[in-house]
Amino acid sequence: MNFELLALESLPCGCVAGDFRAWPMDVEIISIEAKGPHCTLQGHAIGETLDMGALADTEAIEAAGLEDLLADREADELMS
Question: Which residues contact residue 61 at a Cβ distance below 8 angstroms, ignoring those fewer than 6 apart?
Answer without folding.
Answer: 55, 67, 70
